[in-house]
Amino acid sequence: MLRIHFTPEDLGRVRVAGAPDPLWEITFSLHRLQTSRGRWAYADWYRETRTVLAGTPLGAAVRRLLVPVLPRARYLPDFLTPHEAADGLDPGLAAIVDTPPVRVAHEIRTLDRLTGAPDWAPRLVEREAREDLAGLLRAYHEAVIAPHENRIHAKVASECALRGRDTLAAGLDGLLAGLSPAIRWHPPVLHVDYVIDRDLYLAGRGLRLVPSYFCWQSPVSLADDTLRPVLVYPVQGDRRAVPGRPPDASLTALLGRTRAAALRSLALGATTSELARFLGVSVPTATHHTTVLRDAGLVMSHRHHNTVLHTLTPLGAALLGPAPARPGALDRADGSPAAPGS
To answer: pLDDT: is 321 or 293 the higher one?
Structure first.
């Protein structure tokens, strides 16, 4: 159990990241390659990634270099997921390269003591070795994360919309209470199902909440309590486009069968392409349906690059009745003996 202790000052300094953190996504995607638990939720990504990496120098480097220093284990070196990555991949990789060698040496020794570090890991105290590692992280991101960025950004944007709705409806208590089935808010302490037992005292520094696409069920915090406090947690809902329960007769009569199905499928947010796949229609047809729903005040749409994310307005949510069920209780089978973050 991780207990995060808030002071009154911390309650005013809670922030939710509005975009994916690329280095946390790299970390958790590597964990998804190391276990079959939860693989169904990433099936398309997993198959494509295995194809991209199989028999390539990049695939060999991922197995030999990345997995050993970012293992699905109880400890991960904090310097590989720096705060600067909140501003993008380039600032995050620059922060890794600029990490003081003393800190790198300490965290590699900790990794070796708790999990086991590869023989080459102590060389990361050298700047050139960190530059090489940063280059490998970039290559991995470009090969297996970047092709899926639209979906990842859309799911994180949908999560932020849900959290914003919780906050508007019930304030900070609503935000903290609705993050995940693995997280429970008992003011002034946030209780998180965790691989080890520890207390984190925010002491006025606030807390940065980071929704993650590839994080599966188990939230994660940094190991070093002196660093800026962060809690990474999985986005709500399924990562795939899967059928929901059929709309009830009254909703169908009001909107029509296809448009009622569209409204229900947007309960946790979806892009236009995801909605089209869900409904089995063309993208222009899906766009027509979202336009009608938006004009009726039932849906709001947000553009991110060449992707449009659609989520429900309060009126649209009210038409659906009870909110869709949240994911089930934490499945320790996925996390054991995995770590923070597996």
So the answer is: 293
Please give the pLDDT value at position 264.
Answer: 85
At what angle are helices 283-295 and 272-279 packed, to 10 degrees?
Answer: 110
How many whole angstroms separate alpha carbon 175 and alpha carbon 186?
A: 12
- Model confidence pLDDT, tens digit, residues 306-315: 778 888 887 8
Say which DSSP state 245 is in. Answer: P
Beta bridge partners of 149: none
Distance CA 212, CA 239 (A): 11
Task: Round to whole Å and give the CA distance between 257 and 247.
Answer: 8
Q: What is the DSSP letter of 62?
A: I
This prediction has a pTM of 0.74
Sign of torsion, CA 10 13 18 24?
A: negative
What amino acid occupies position 335?
Answer: G
143-167 average pLDDT score? 85
Say what the pLDDT of residue 280 is.
Answer: 87
Task: Tell me how far apart the alpha carbons of residues 16 and 158 are, in angstroms, rounded to a whole number.
Answer: 12
What's the rounded mean pLDDT across residues 20-35? 96
232, 24 Cβ separation under 8 angstroms: yes
What percentage of the chain exceeds 70 in pLDDT?
Answer: 89
Q: Which residues partner with 5 through β-bridges?
A: 189, 201
Q: Residue 236 gets which letter from DSSP?
A: S
Report residue 207 as tokens.
Answer: 């807390």
Residue 146: what pLDDT?
Answer: 95
- In the block, residue with structure tokens 């808010």: 185
How far apart are the C-alpha atoms of 206 and 285, rounded to whole Å?
Answer: 45
Rounded-to-integer distance, Cα 123 and Cα 105, Å: 9
Distance between CA 333 and CA 57 in Å, rounded? 32
Residues 6+ apart with CB under 8 A from 340: 74, 75, 76, 194, 195, 196, 218, 219, 220, 221, 223
